[in-house]
């Protein structure tokens, strides 16, 4: 410490500390101090160490660059923060308008979907009416294919006889030959991509009656790419001339993506055909709804356009920040290489962070959490949040990172995460490691309820499951009252063993995904929707497991079947010897219960000798009928409301979302074993879950 | 009663008595009546093995906690329960009321159970673990005599299997060889015997033999509703047997092997197979109707309970628990029958985490215990009332 203080006081040039370290390693601290005192005002000392002077001067220069870049980084961060705020403001100001337009569009789509569903049967046949249009489209497509093939053919000869222009050196001409080969290769790739796009589209159109539903493949072939690897030498003018001639033939210009332009042109044509087709079959009500939808889409497009400047600025600010970060990393590497362990500042490690506690935005986006130090060193970081068996550590296994600048988010592999964090910085000084640490919290911010509702809707729209919007909004009320993070400390809202977030999702494996559901509320929504989807599937297949022993066979139905079979096997329904009859009936019923109907049939066949033909036929018919029980949960009984099956499926899915099973089949007719699906919740921790969920008003969660 | 015994036990554990003196103290404990050894306070249990101990004399909560957490925190026990750390869900319970043992079926949701954790209710200490992979469906352990019967529905072919265990040591009997015996929804042991009534016959478990009953014709032409205390409650078999006014019930005495009662309750009906709507009390003295209403396809227990005496065939007690609110009726939320008390003289109901104890011996509601502040997103799953 004394030595360091004395260095600071004397204000020696940077060369001295470098020298000091080298000497202290060989001669110990005392002799180094002597040498330092002797060196005051002795400019030639650096030369004793060969290039040390030079190295340290360069290191100092790099350090200056580092600091200047770091300042630039702060400015870039401010620019990003301002851009984000501006974007948020722009979004907020549009929120109501966007929600209204979105709802109008969605309502129109739902109505249109219902209307189209109603006439789906005849829709296919009427596409035949577009046969002339299809032929016309095919003709044009084929012409385009031929033209592209021809254009590709022109390039080879065009560049094949490349003479060295007068007055051009042999070296330049040699380069031009290499360029020629490179350019031809690039052109071949470009034309091949466009040809593939056109031929694939032709194949689809040829095969499909509803050809207007074909879509050109999303391949890219940027025209600018043809110059890749071409040095041009002195022959640029030749290339340019030939290139322009060919692109002009293809009615294309500039450096655009030829494939994209082609795709867009064809998509526009196909849309026209589709409109024509739909227009011809539109009912007045569909026309109205299509108009509503178009108006809403136009409104949304207008809003998007209004938002675009803010988005562009944000992207530009982010790009600038990323660029500076890379530059900084390169400078750090350079500085580390030049200084080794010699910098005097290393002896006093420092961490600079703007604040200790951070918040994940409601977007959700990670905060601009970065740390810097005066000099490079080793950084380690970990943020952790643990709840019962849920262990979320970012990164899972910390490894040290070197540098002057540290970005914990990048270091942890990106994504959205939080919890309590510890940040450690080690720097070496005279062979000793000196440590500085910082700790704090990264919290989560709850999104607005309306924003969550819009996200649920948008995700379900994308999946074509608009009918689930209301249920999912109610489930989120029931599960969390729209809470992703605890209000008290901003940590994920977790209950029971490992239920997490808005939708209290669980069993999202691997753990990495479970943790994502804890910190990224949009992901939590998508998992909630996915889980509900599984539960809906389970509800549809609920009847298959009612008689199955592996899933807790329905004993009432089994016993009803057994009773009836026992009496039938016994022939005359007499009770005498009923134990024997019961054994046979049990074998049949058991094999039905384990869904092994062939065994049931074998058992049945064995009864043929003991029964009259009439009795046997009755028995056979009964077994055949019993094997159809219970009916699917979604099957309507003759005396039910139309909505009853859908209500059952919905309630079963909601129950399963919580856990357990909602419906049991109960025989009500003791002769036929036909019956009803009765709500008898089991394996559940909240019997009232379904009723409570359905009773929520999602707009208020009351 | 329970706390006194507990304090004596603590005293023994805390003093450095010599071994001889310990024998004397243990001797004192052992001469206490058996009932005293098994004494425990009422419990309310919920899904996650959360428990609440109730002071039955004052109808208030004595203590609460989590059984599995407490066991895992005990270093002398936790190594034995290592597998429970990963399978902490306790979705199902069974109780041996007489020995005061709680059986917790432990496993992961929608997966298999790992086994059965056995805990003493008097102090919630570990008493054993029966390891057995079982399907994740509701299960029960049926204690009788010196045995425990566990019905396991795992199996690709045929009926569920029943396994026997020693009621004290929990050792498997018959080397784990399962009985080809199935407990139907109406099965019961004849009091004081090893005879099981199941699927309209008496099954001798030791002899592995089923005996047809007298009056079998009539039994086969009826549908069983419940069996307890040596009595089987049946309803006449027909296409719509539960119509109000047309309901024909009968009681078959398994010991006398004859029908002892046939009656037509005038103002009672039923929703077919509504769980616990029609029952026999554990002492075999009463038929109980727990009125259940059909509200938009959902069976809702209204809180009206009617007892009929089996000996006289007359109405014995007609009682109404606090009426359901408009809102409860609207969303179809009614009472839940939880259990009979261990002494078989009380019925326990629950509504919105308030426990109601109906003492039908004395014809009174003996306890109302409000547990609502202990539950937020779950409900009382099981109540054990000694």
Topology diagram in text:
The complex is a heterodimer of chains A (702) and B (386).
Chain A: H1 2-10, H2 15-39, H3 52-118, H4 120-126, H5 131-160, H6 170-207, H7 236-249, H8 258-281, H9 284-339, E1 352-353, E2 358-360, E3 371-387, E4 390-394, E5 401-406, H10 408-411, E6 419-429, E7 432-444, H11 449-463, H12 469-480, E8 494-495, E9 499-500, H13 511-519, H14 521-540, H15 555-569, H16 578-593, H17 597-606, H18 613-626, H19 644-658, E10 661-667, E11 675-682, H20 689-694
Parallel strand pairs in A: 2-7
Antiparallel strand pairs in A: 1-3, 3-4, 3-5, 3-6, 6-7, 8-9, 10-11
Helix pairs in contact in A: 3-9, 5-6, 5-7, 6-8, 11-14, 13-14, 14-19, 15-16, 15-18, 16-17
Chain B: H1 2-14, H2 19-31, H3 34-37, E1 43-45, E2 50-55, E3 60-66, H4 67-73, E4 92-96, E5 101-107, E6 113-120, E7 126-134, E8 141-144, E9 147-152, E10 161-166, E11 188-189, E12 195-198, E13 201-204, E14 209-212, H5 216-220, E15 222-228, E16 231-236, E17 249-253, E18 258-263, E19 278-280, E20 286-295, E21 298-309, E22 315-320, H6 326-331, E23 336-340, E24 346-351, E25 354-359, E26 364-370, E27 382-384
Antiparallel strand pairs in B: 1-2, 1-27, 2-3, 4-5, 5-6, 6-7, 8-9, 9-10, 11-12, 12-13, 13-14, 15-16, 16-17, 17-18, 19-20, 20-21, 21-22, 23-24, 24-25, 25-26
Key structural traits:
heterodimer; A: 702 residues; alpha+beta; seven-stranded mixed beta sheet; two-stranded antiparallel ribbon; 20 helices; disordered N terminus; B: 386 residues; mainly beta; Methylamine Dehydrogenase, Chain H; four-stranded antiparallel beta sheet; 41% strand; globular
Please tell me about this protein's structure.
- The complex is a heterodimer of chains A (702) and B (386).
- Chain A is an alpha+beta fold and 702 residues long.
- Chain A has helices at residues 2-10, 15-39, 52-118, 120-126, 131-160, 170-207, 236-249, 258-281, 284-339, 408-411, 449-463, 469-480, 511-519, 521-540, 555-569, 578-593, 597-606, 613-626, 644-658, 689-694; strands at 352-353, 358-360, 371-387, 390-394, 401-406, 419-429, 432-444, 494-495, 499-500, 661-667, 675-682.
- In chain A, strands 1, 2, 3, 4, 5, 6 and 7 form a seven-stranded mixed β-sheet that branches.
- The radius of gyration of chain A is 38 Å and the shape is extended.
- Chain B has one domain: YVTN repeat-like/Quinoprotein amine dehydrogenase (Methylamine Dehydrogenase, Chain H, 7 Propeller).
- Helix content of chain B is 12%, strand content 41%.
- Chain B has helices at 2-14, 19-31, 34-37, 67-73, 216-220, 326-331; strands at residues 43-45, 50-55, 60-66, 92-96, 101-107, 113-120, 126-134, 141-144, 147-152, 161-166, 188-189, 195-198, 201-204, 209-212, 222-228, 231-236, 249-253, 258-263, 278-280, 286-295, 298-309, 315-320, 336-340, 346-351, 354-359, 364-370, 382-384.
- In chain B, the strands form seven sheets. Chain B has a four-stranded antiparallel β-sheet. A four-stranded antiparallel β-sheet of chain B has the order 4-5-6-7, with no helix packed on it.
- The chains are: A alpha+beta (702), B mainly beta (386).
- The interface between A and B is large, with 57 and 57 residues.
